[in-house]
Specification:
Number of domains: 1
Number of strands: 8
CATH topology: Spore Coat Polysaccharide Biosynthesis Protein SpsA, Chain A
Strand order of the largest sheet: 3-2-1-4-7-6-8-5
Strand content: 5-15%
CATH architecture: Alpha-Beta Complex
Distance between the termini: 54 Å
Oligomer: single chain
Number of helices: 14
CATH class: Alpha Beta
Structural class: alpha/beta
């Protein structure tokens, strides 16, 4: 014990600030990982439990759509195939000024009186949802992105949570519809991780995002908070914060599955994540900054939001630190090659192979182990087969690349946020309704 304490003192006395920060962030990552595992263990008997509904309330499903000719039919069909009484189900498609065949496809369903179609000039997703809500007859409002579709039992799994009058919204288990490339497979695992993490958030009453695909709201609460904000980059985060502020609960069902399409290219993914993360930062640092250390929702205000900022800072720092170290290593290697006249024979003879285990490499191995455990937990909570032989390359790619990608996206979003503030705000141009 004293040896460990003495080693730590010696490390701190010799280390630079950068090394100490790196050590702190390693500890922080491990702490958060273990913390959510403990939440999982404490609530393990409740993970897959959905309360039985005392009654089946009427539900209006609102589908905002802008140029979604490729996906809109499947979204509507999934609503029609839901195992829910048809006389208590209303499907409203809000066509947000589409210029493709979206309206033409929807007209065929409207002609059969299967849906209600509303056409309007393009003004964004939030305005489309608000218009749909104003015309909806249902007691509950379900939102479904046009590029997403339901599992047939999704609504039945979710409505039981509304037995509790304090529940304002219920989120589904959002999964990727298909994944083929490495980038898509990384997103597939990321979405499964979000299924696990959102359920843990629900146990602590600190869900701060109500995803567009498949979430259900109590209509009276939506009207009470004034609907969705058309000027917000991420209306699903903004609405969750406003619901949390009023003291309502946001629940989650891991059994209610909704599938969604994801960006196929890096450019599309980058654009999506900059919008998501910039919107989150604008909400937390601007419109809802009073929720930080908010005692009305202590787990959200006193723990999750502050720790999220620590995550953000640490990810940005680790990315910059890693790039700096990489360039330093490459510069040192090139300088050594220059000094020996680029004689590769001398270089090869000077190489000594071996395995060294120091304080930081030990942390890396521990973190690698925990990452593997988190992947396994996410698969179990998401009820996906492990398939180690078939999917081992997916898991390796996720562990190797995910934190690099997520760090880059957060850094890019931070830069973009500063740019927006210098420029004076402005909307997100050219974005589809998602």
């Amino acid at each position: 014990m004293w040896w460990i304490f003495g080693s730590l003192l010696e490390l701190f006395s010799r280390a630079e600030i950068g090394t100490l920060l790196l050590l702190f962030f390693y500890y922080f990552f491990l702490y958060c990982t273990i913390f959510w595992m403990l939440v999982l263990l404490e609530n393990r008997k409740r993970i897959f439990f959905d309360p039985r509904p005392r009654r089946l309330p009427s539900i209006s499903i609102i589908i905002p759509a802008y140029n979604e000719e490729e996906h809109i039919a499947r979204a509507i069909d999934s609503c029609l195939n839901l195992k829910y009484p048809k006389d208590k189900l209303e499907i409203i498609v809000v066509n947000d000024g589409s210029t493709d065949r979206t309206e033409e496809i929807c007209r065929k369903y409207e002609a059969k009186k299967l849906i209600k179609l509303i056409n309007k000039p393009n003004s964004g997703k939030a305005n489309s949802l608000n218009l749909g809500i104003s015309l909806a007859r249902g007691e509950l409002i379900c939102c479904l992105d046009a590029d997403s579709y339901f599992d047939e039992e999704a609504l039945l799994r979710m409505v039981g949570y509304f037995n509790d009058k304090e529940v304002a919204a219920v989120t589904a288990a959002l999964k990727v519809s298909s994944s083929n490339t490495i980038l898509e497979k990384i997103q597939h695992l990321e979405y499964l991780f979000s299924v696990y993490l959102r359920k843990m958030f629900s146990f602590l009453d600190c869900i701060y995002v109500i995803p567009g695909p498949g979430s259900i709201y109590r209509k009276e609460v939506l009207q009470k908070v004034g609907g969705f904000d058309p000027n917000n980059l991420v209306e699903d985060t903004d609405i969750a914060f406003r619901i949390q502020r009023l003291g309502y609960k946001i629940e989650n069902s891991v059994n209610a599955v909704v599938y969604t399409h994801i960006p196929r290219s890096f450019r599309g993914l980058l654009k999506q994540r900059i919008r998501w993360y910039t919107g989150y930062l604008e909400n937390v640092l601007g419109k809802h900054r009073d929720l930080i250390f908010f005692k009305g929702s202590p787990n959200l205000g006193m723990f999750l939001l502050p720790s999220n900022f620590l995550w953000l800072f640490s990810l940005n720092y680790l990315l910059i630190f890693s790039v700096y170290e990489l360039f330093g290593y490459l510069y040192g290697g090139f300088r050594n090659l220059f000094l020996i006249g680029f004689d590769l024979g001398i270089l090869l003879r000077s190489i000594r192979f071996g395995i060294g285990l120091n304080f930081f490499s030990s942390f890396f191995l521990i973190f690698l182990g925990f990452s593997s455990i988190v992947i396994l937990i996410s698969l179990k909570v998401g009820r996906e087969k492990v398939g180690l032989k078939e999917r081992y390359s997916n898991y390796i790619a996720y562990i190797a690349l995910y934190f690099i990608l997520i760090s880059f996206f957060w850094l890019a979003s931070t830069v973009f946020l500063i740019y927006r503030k210098v420029r004076g705000g402005g909307g997100w141009k050219g974005e589809k309704v998602r």
